[in-house]
Amino acid sequence: MRLAAQDRAKLTLLHVIETIDQPEQDEMESFYSMLESKARENFERLIQELPVAEFAGTWEIVFGKRVAEIIGFAIRNAVDLMILSSRKVDLGELPKGLASVSHQVSMLAQCPVLLVKC
Question: Are residues 85 and 41 in the same domain?
């Protein structure tokens, strides 16, 4: 938020709900609805905890494959910078760590990506 505030940039918080490939999507509707409701509650709580002046932006919840949805969102919305949380990679499990969503997005993004280690 501090980065966005410096340039009066628009900030968009994005949450992707990963969908499961299966022929009977109707069976999953209530499950996805519950996940969306929980994500919406979390966004609303997060926004309320922030000083109003600090959050000049929006939030969005989308469904699909996480990496593809994040990249597609960035392209469709002409995003200048993506900021993603990223877990520390265990060097003993390097192939697994390199398969993380944040690493994949950082490699495929068409704009700069800032990874914040958690």
Answer: no
